[in-house]
């Protein structure tokens, strides 16, 4: 039985050049048997094929290729030698040699240089998430964070009391108070921060009133301000806790601010000699933009309300100051009141004159009155009418005074005439009485005067006689 044919009767061992006469495919090279040393004239069925093997061509590598090859060999060498028992000096020198080869000027290929010149890669090599970039921008202008020298205080600043609680051990809750956390340090740090803020304001604003200084101090030490510093330095990311907070809530904002206050306490406690000075210099530098932005409230005309009253108020005329909208807070958490002034009288009914704003209602009312005096045409019209009315009243008053003076003068002249007539009558009566007395004899008064005169003359005469004797 003949053996079956292999491969579907394909002549595997037939003439190897039997396919030469077939149509060649496009792009396919044609191989010649002469390249392998075949001699078709000497070839026979019983004669073996003789081949001659050409020596391999000699390869020549450029300096750039050699460098790239050395880099590849060094990479393989470092990979093979990186074992637990490897010689660190050898690995170090191998890595250093690789780095020097890669940093040469001609290490980059010509095609890459052309690509970089024509199509440069302008994108950042490392992608920074948006929230990280915000933190970097917030912290780039901040002063360096002073370190806390004591490790246990540094750890306590970033430890919440819940971190000491093991939910699997209920007996551990009795010893929680023995562990130090940021809340206990915050009690002391809060006092230090308020003292430093008071010193910064007291020394730099000697001309500002105390109530306004208190308002500025509140703006420096409020939680919203301290939490910004805490987040800029990355304090919340370092907090160890087992609690759950809403990041946007006020409770979380207070935790972040308390961590900053605890850090101030850690600075002071870890360095009893210079800690307070370090904390004061650091806080003052953090507050410097706010301190430069504080301005004393200047009221251009503090007597504006009195002046407006003098311009428009008379009997049955009223000025009404009232809030035009609700109180708000500005960027520095300072209250802002909005007051308007309205006029009733002089032909107007609840007429708007001006508006103003201020940190309190009195400042806002003064600002509204000043705006009304400077800008309101109604005030100018009313002031003109009042001036005319006052001029008329003045003339009427002067005329009335003249009439009163005239009447008083006439009354005075009449009384003088009566008095003169009365004097004349009294003088005639006196003369008549004297003549009548002379006829009847001296009166008792005249007799008394006469006796006194006689006694005086006798006394003088007696003294004269004594002197002569």
Automatic annotation (TrEMBL):
Question: Which top-rank group of organisms is this from?
Answer: Eukaryota
According to the entry, every stretch annotated as the DRBM domain falls at 303-374
Q: Which keywords describe this protein according to UniProt?
A: Endonuclease, Hydrolase, Nuclease, RNA-binding
Q: Which InterPro entries match?
A: dsRBD_dom, RNase_III_dom, RNase_III_sf
- Pfam families, per this entry? Ribonuclease_3 (PF00636)
GO molecular function terms attached to this record: ribonuclease III activity; RNA binding
What SUPFAM superfamilies has UniProt attached to this entry?
Answer: dsRNA-binding domain-like, RNase III domain-like
- What are the GO BP annotations of this UniProt entry? rRNA processing; termination of RNA polymerase II transcription; U4 snRNA 3'-end processing
Enumerate the CDD domains for this protein: RIBOc
Q: Where is this region: Disordered?
A: 1-59, 409-469
Q: Which residues cross the membrane?
A: none
Q: Where is the RNase III domain?
A: 129-272
Q: In what ranges is there compositional bias, type Basic and acidic residues?
A: 40-49, 409-438, 460-469
* Composition bias, Basic residues: 446-459
GO cellular component: a single term: nucleoplasm
Q: What is this protein called?
A: Ribonuclease III
Query: What organism is the protein native to?
Result: Cucurbitaria berberidis CBS 394.84
């Amino acid at each position: 039985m003949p053996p079956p044919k292999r491969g579907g009767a394909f002549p595997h061992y037939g003439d190897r050049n039997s396919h030469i006469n077939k149509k060649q495919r496009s792009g396919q090279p044609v191989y010649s048997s002469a390249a392998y040393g075949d001699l078709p004239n000497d070839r026979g069925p019983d004669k073996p094929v003789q081949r001659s093997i050409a020596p391999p061509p000699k390869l020549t590598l450029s300096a750039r290729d050699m460098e790239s090859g050395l880099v590849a060999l060094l990479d393989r060498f470092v990979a093979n030698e990186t074992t637990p028992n490897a010689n660190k000096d050898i690995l170090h020198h191998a890595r250093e040699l690789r780095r020097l080869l890669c940093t040469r000027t001609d290490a980059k290929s010509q095609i890459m240089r052309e690509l970089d010149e024509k199509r440069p890669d302008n994108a950042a090599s490392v992608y920074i998430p948006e929230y990280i970039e915000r933190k970097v921008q917030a912290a780039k202008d901040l002063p360096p964070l002073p370190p806390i020298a004591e490790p246990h205080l540094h750890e306590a600043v970033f430890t919440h009391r819940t971190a000491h609680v093991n939910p699997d051990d209920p007996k551990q809750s009795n010893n929680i108070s023995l562990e130090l956390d940021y809340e206990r340090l915050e009690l002391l740090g809060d006092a230090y921060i308020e003292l430093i803020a008071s010193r910064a304001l007291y020394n730099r604003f000697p001309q500002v009133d105390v109530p306004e200084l208190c308002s500025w101090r509140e703006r420096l030490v409020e939680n919203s301000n301290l939490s910004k510093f805490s987040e800029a330095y990355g304090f919340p990311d370092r907090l160890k806790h087992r609690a759950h907070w809403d990041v946007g809530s006020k409770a979380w904002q207070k935790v972040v601010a308390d961590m900053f206050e605890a850090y101030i306490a850690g600075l002071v406690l870890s360095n009893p000699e210079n800690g307070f000075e370090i904390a004061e210099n650091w806080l003052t530098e953090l507050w410097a933009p706010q301190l430069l932005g504080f301005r004393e409230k200047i009221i251009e005309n503090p007597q504006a309300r009195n002046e407006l009253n003098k311009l428009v108020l008379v009997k049955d005329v009223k000025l009404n100051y009232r809030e035009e909208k609700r109180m708000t807070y500005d960027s520095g958490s300072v209250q802002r009141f909005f007051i308007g002034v309205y006029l009733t009288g002089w032909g107007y009914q609840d007429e708007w004159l001006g508006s103003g704003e201020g940190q309190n209602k009195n400042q806002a009312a003064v600002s509204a009155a000043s705006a009304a005096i400077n800008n309101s045409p109604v005030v100018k019209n009313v002031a003109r009418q009042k001036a005319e009315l006052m001029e008329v009243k003045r003339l009427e008053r002067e005329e009335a005074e003249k009439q009163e003076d005239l009447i008083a003068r006439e009354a005075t002249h009449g009384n003088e005439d009566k008095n003169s007539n009365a004097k004349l009558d009294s003088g005639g009566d006196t003369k008549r009485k004297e003549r009548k007395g002379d006829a009847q004899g001296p009166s008792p008064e005249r007799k008394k005067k006469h006796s006194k005169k006689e006694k005086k003359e006798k006394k003088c005469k007696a003294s004269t006689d004594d002197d002569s004797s």
